[in-house]
Amino acid sequence: MNRVFGIETEYGITVDGIDNVDVVSESIELVRRYTEHGNLMKWDYRLEDPHQDARGEEFRAVELLQDTDESAYFEIDKNRPLSFEEIKSDLVLSNGARYYNDHAHPEYSTPECTTLREVVAQDKAGERILAECARRRNKKLLPDREVRLYKNNTDFIGHSYGCHDNFLMSRHVPWDRVVSDILPFLVTRQIFAGAGKMGVEAESVASQAGLYQISQRADFFSVVVSIDTMNRRPLINTRDEPHADSSKYRRFHVIIGDANMSEIATALKMGTTSLVLELIEAGKAPQLEFAQPIETTKAISRDQTHTWIIELKDGRKISAVDVQRMYLAAAMVHCDRKDEETAWLLREWESVLDDLEKDVMLCRDRVDWVAKRFLLSTLKEEENLAWTDPWLQSIDLEYHNVSTDQGLHYALLREGQMRRFVSEDDVRNAIFNPPETTRAYFRGRSVAKFNSEVSSIHWDEVVFNHAGGTRRVSLNQAFNDEKLDQLNAAIRQAKSFPDFIREIGSMG
């Protein structure tokens, strides 16, 4: 697939033996446990502009609702003996990823990838990195205290934290068309990409037990389109930060998705969305409009019958499975079926829809919400529990524990009850090595080879200290660019920093 994509994941924290955890402090500690192979606190925040809106300059946000939260954190953080940079504790890792403290959650952003195998391996590498940080942190704590990290999206008391998937796409497509063409797909994608959750909750309102949902995030969306990501969350986020040549590209920033433990679910989520963006760019996406997108998102998640019937704006009724089949049919016709990953995607997309329609339990080897429901149902029957029993919520949470020894997802994996998409060698390689097809290679190898010479760093540039000044290297093209190929070759072959500077200087 001729596209760059990546995943940002915020992780939940608990600490045994402490009633009131200072999650900001704990998040900082966790990030700083992984400094051995990273470039600490050189992230250039001046290159970020979260107020720019994809709908145009007239929509530019003077102030975001989430700025209020930032201000609240600022007031709390004034009492800490740390600077803003120290609180963020930003790291760029040797695999090209970014790892930092974001709103009291350690966040891992994968490097830019161009294949499903890369992005799944890099996403799993993030889990291993976080698990190792927790292990190192626990060595410093008292014996009765233990940090646990969860790749999920809710604390069950009304707070949601995100897993955002990102796709570089052509800027020539009008924004309104992007929204109208992809909204039905994103609302229904949860039937195979949802992570599952016990209870129903709302912003700052504790979970009401007794109902099992297919999505962890569905409860937390209240508008269709907006630039905010933390308050009054939108189904479609309009933040316009391409981190690339803005005359060619926009970054489609998806905040509606759940964090997936299943490798197959992650591959399906990223791959199908990429194919749908391909359809939109070609003007070949299905045309349909939901009567009430926000309500439909919640209704699909809470539907205990799994029929997922949706009302369209023209009054017709359609199922979520059939909505997905419409996009699948278009992709079958218009996407390159000779490409190996595309061919796999089309087969798996059709297979998961067929199985969901026959019996959702057929998908428990690849769909997180089904696998978790199977675990919960088994425990409920064995222990004669009610669906409102708090024990079930604790089991729900442990499915997402990133410890390979403690996490229930990993228990299913060891028992052969969950399918894999990548090998353990792929994951281990991704912990330290960046994808070779994107600018992440240059960023990651720069950190690995010339960490002490790096002055500042961001997604689309690296600045080196040199000869009493600086040497700025622009990475404005994320992939598929001759100059980028030359830069990647230069950092790959460089034996010393002076040789490297001479080589990139000769490029003009």
Describe the structure.
By secondary structure, this protein is an alpha+beta fold. It folds into 2 domains: 5-428, 2-Layer Sandwich (Creatine Kinase, Chain A, domain 2); 439-505, no CATH class. Helices cover 41% and strands 19% of the residues. The protein contains 17 helices and 18 strands. The protein has helices at 23-32, 65-77, 84-88, 116-140, 175-188, 190-193, 263-282, 293-302, 320-334, 340-358, 368-383, 390-398, 408-414, 424-432, 440-450, 482-493, 497-505, and strands at residues 5-10, 12-16, 38-40, 91-93, 98-102, 105-109, 146-150, 163-170, 197-202, 205-213, 221-226, 233-237, 249-254, 309-311, 317-319, 454-458, 461-466, 469-474. The strands form 6 sheets. It has a 7-stranded antiparallel beta sheet. A hairpin with a 4-residue loop joins strand 4 (91-93) and strand 5. Helix 1 (23-32) crosses helix 4. It is globular and about 70 Å long. The chain starts with a strand and ends with a helix. 46% of the residues are buried.
How would you sum up this structure in a few lines?
By secondary structure, this protein is of the alpha+beta class.
Could you give the topology of this structure?
Elements: E1 5-10, E2 12-16, H1 23-32, E3 38-40, H2 65-77, H3 84-88, E4 91-93, E5 98-102, E6 105-109, H4 116-140, E7 146-150, E8 163-170, H5 175-188, H6 190-193, E9 197-202, E10 205-213, E11 221-226, E12 233-237, E13 249-254, H7 263-282, H8 293-302, E14 309-311, E15 317-319, H9 320-334, H10 340-358, H11 368-383, H12 390-398, H13 408-414, H14 424-432, H15 440-450, E16 454-458, E17 461-466, E18 469-474, H16 482-493, H17 497-505
Parallel strand pairs: 11-12
Antiparallel strand pairs: 1-6, 1-8, 2-7, 3-4, 4-5, 5-6, 8-13, 9-10, 14-15, 16-17, 17-18
